[in-house]
Amino acid sequence: MATHKKINSKTDWAKVDATTEEEINRQAKEDDTLLTDEQLKAMRPIADFPELQALTKRGRPRQDSTKQSTTLRLNPDIIRFFKKNGQGWQTRINEVLQEYVDEHRQNH
Known about the structure:
By secondary structure, this protein is mostly helical. The protein has helices at about 15-20, 20-30, 35-40, 75-85, 90-105. The longest helix is centred in the C-terminal third of the chain and has 19 residues, at about 90-105.
């Protein structure tokens, strides 16, 4: 059994580890994604294609407006509420605050 770094993931690693080579091949054939040994041997790294390297940008896409980092003190129950749904809790707080600002900006 493989070991996996503990991260916030929705992947069922036990299922992945239990999947046999035969099952992987069967699924690949159904998806029409099974490559032959010849196709695998003919593959070349993207570094061999400089014209395509621009398509492999890493990181998050640049946004029109970037967020500003700050320190904010919140009640523990607020943090627990937003964290209970996992990753993205800070984004969810930002969305709630943005909605509040938008509503109140229109009323003033």
